[in-house]
Amino acid sequence: MSDAPKDPPEPPEDTHMRDDSTTDRPEANLVHFNPWRDFNDAAPMLDPFGDEPDPAQIASFMEVVFGYCDGLIPVRSFIDKGQGIDGRPHNIWISADETAPEKMATFAHWAAREGAAVYVIPGTVTESGQAKAADVARMQAVVVDIDSGDIAAKRAHLERHLGPPTMVVESGGITPEGQHKAHVWWKLTEPAEGDDIRRLCRLRGDIAAKVGGDMHFRSAHQPIRVAGSVYYKNNLKTLVRIVEMNAGLERDLDEFAEAVADMPPAPGVNLTPDFATPDKPAVEDVLVTPVREGGADDWSRFEGASAAIGHFIRLVHEGRLSKSEGWEAICGYNAAMLRPQWPVERLKRESERLWARHVERHGPPLVRLDSAAPVPDEMPSFTLGQLLDDQSPMPADLIGPRVLTPGGLLVLGGAPKVGKSDLLISWLVHMAAGVPFLGFTPPRPLRIFYLQAEIQYHYLRERMQQIGLPAELIAAARDNLVVTPKLKMLLDAEGSARVAAAIRVAFPDDALDILCIDPIRNLFDGGPDGGGENDNAAMMFFLKDRVEVLRDHVNPDCGLILVHHTKKLSKHQVKEDPFLALSGASALRGFYTTGLILHRPDEEASERKLEIELRNGPALKPKLVDKVNGAWVEVNPMNERLVRAEQGAKFDAERDRKGEVIVDILHREARSGRMYTMTLFAEAFENKSGLSGQTSIRERLNVLTTKGIVKFVKGNAASDLGLASDRSKYGYLCVEHMELATGEEATDPETGEVTPVHVRVFPSHYKCPQTGAVLPVENPAVWVYPEGGEA
């Protein structure tokens, strides 16, 4: 607080909050205040040129800061500088009870007449004359003094991460940019005592460090202006004013401490203290200088830990330390120099935050990408009871149901040209748009980086432009899916750094959700021994030291999708265990969380089967998929023949052939002037043109008429064609584009050529596919196929 007394040294060096029984200064320099004895308690005269103390605001301030506290409130007044007058400080102690607001208002009025500011230590002590940090017995509110920079932006940052404050006070000062300096308060649900007071003061220091506030509030005995009192400074007189009050808003100390620990620094705030100034030691001294809590030293534990962590992170980033060595050094500083030391979880969070900030400023590590953020080497373990009692919600799937979980690894395998890349592109577009695909569901539009190394740029853009998906889906995925053309690189240390940099450029503001590598073979780095993808040791090196390290570098929770080729296996082997087909299977299969294999059960059919293996969820049935009209769809597996599939396919083809033969015969016979009823046709063409007996022919005709491929001409329509009246149920058979010879001939006047005359045959009736009834055709000129028929 630039306009308040700065972090006063504790007695005996300073006696600004001590009575005459504890000071060596002359008694005349200290005044004990009794509002009923020492001052004129007549109504104060109003100053028409300035503000007067506001008893209502004083009462609100006292309730937030002292409402739950017992004991005595240390109060101080002194002449603000810049008025051209001198005065001595006045210290009083008032009881933290129902009379406190009235007494504070009386003292504020007296101080206003004297041109003096009014301060309190925001905590209570047990005896009059006490004012040291160690004397503070109770504190019930956390405060941060924002006295520089963009005050409004800092307040917004605090509210976004710590929640709305109980009270905001404009202290009276104004920054060079014209903004009002502010005190932001959060009231606790109960007073802090003992060790919790030191914890509260540590929170005040951490908040101030993260928003560029006044660091003097690390100390419990730091005084602060009273809201409702009058500010005098540099010829400015104004009210210390409450500008926001949420009287019922209180915070639990434990929950608030977690929020403070998770809060990132405000934009533009550098948490690394400037140890290059003359009054600060060099970083080498920081590493060997103990730091105690409560602001007892030249800098806080937060500043010391940040400086030490930053030093070791620079060494890791430059490759001079490995990540395990860096973490060991950080833990060593924590154990040896911080009194008491930080919890490991807090140390880890701060290390990861500073690492991310360092990489953002200086780019990927210059030597090794595997020098990731230092992490603890302790092996996590849990008792059965802990696992049974943990009822916290499960993390949301990146692709449900459990197909790709946060931090998971999915491998999509398939033989060359089976369509896995085409399937993958459609899948990724759907995920980037937040739309389900083949039953796989994203929770929202996902940010995806597709590192593909097979298709060159011009053919890649052609494929993307020809993708058969709805325009609205493409529009939703435009900015969320980033694709590389064919790359000539390996995913080694240098290549990983290039990929990490490209991902940061593609998604500068938000974390990546999915990193897809297609295919493994074209980017594979087998490590120092140069093993191939069929070498299990080389595959494990690639997965652990390249792929996972790259993922941890960009976002530890992002999902990985790897596309891989399969070995040649017999159909029986694929049927027994399709995942054995993956190259390097024994290492890869033991590493992934989800495996997908795309293969053709029948090489003559277009359908593919997608086999699914999950580790993080219940088993999923295989999916039968096909590409129809440019879009991948799931085929109902109930339509798949399970027994004697090859023989059944031959029977299907034979039935289709017979149907085509029947239609062709009806066409040819009509052009020769002959039309048939169903019975006549079966009798006339039994065992001819590759057809079977009458029964088989009639069965095929029944199927063709039900599908609308064959219709009928009967009644007047038959008579109009010169056909004999027929009393059968159906009449004469008719097919699309049928022409009937009339028996007449026409002569071409120019060539003299004689040709038979044909008339177009239109159906008059059709067979209803639902009831089998013969119904009139609505428009004979338009051939309509019922739903499910063939065009």
UniProtKB/TrEMBL annotation:
Short name of one Pfam family for this protein? AAA_25
Give positions of region: Disordered.
Answer: 1-28
User: Gene3D superfamilies, alphabetically?
Assistant: P-loop containing nucleotide triphosphate hydrolases
Q: Which InterPro entries match?
A: P-loop_NTPase
Question: Basic and acidic residues: which segments have biased composition?
Answer: 1-27
Q: What is this protein's record name?
A: AAA domain-containing protein
Organism equals: Ruegeria intermedia
